[in-house]
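Final report, closing paragraph on structural work. Over the funding period we assembled a curated collection of sequence-structure pairs, and we close with a single example.
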Amino acid sequence: MASARSNPTFHAPVTDHYQTRPRFFAAAHAALTSSLSSSPARPGWLALADLIVPSTFATRTLFSWIPALPVANLGPINDDVYHLDRAGFEAIEVQDVTDAVFPGLTAYLCAFPGARKWRVAGWMWWAFWKALGLRYVIVSATVKKSV
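Its predicted structure, as stored:
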């Protein structure tokens, strides 16, 4: 996909569902690298929004019951930086935007008129954010230029 940056670009949703984050980053790198074969001077660019869930006893126990969210993906924000670097990315930027996302999201869902399921979803997101330490980050990185 071409972007305003004139570089091959890979935009991704949250990576916490993938088996596992390192495999996702390696696949993203491979996709961007293959699209660069005609012009290696222009690095590909990765952009994604990600939910970061710390690895604690409570989160490991909870997520062990949710097959779509692998326990192996739990960890600190620095894990994404480490895995991106190992996958072959550089200029890695991670911006924690949790405090700009979750207050409005939880307030909106909890105040949603009519459907109780939206209020329950609001309470769930609030609990993940406040009690379990869920973080929402925006990540960008470029493919390392080969020497």
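Confidence is low (pLDDT under 50) at residues 1-6. The two ends are 25 Å apart (CA to CA). We thank the funder for supporting this effort.
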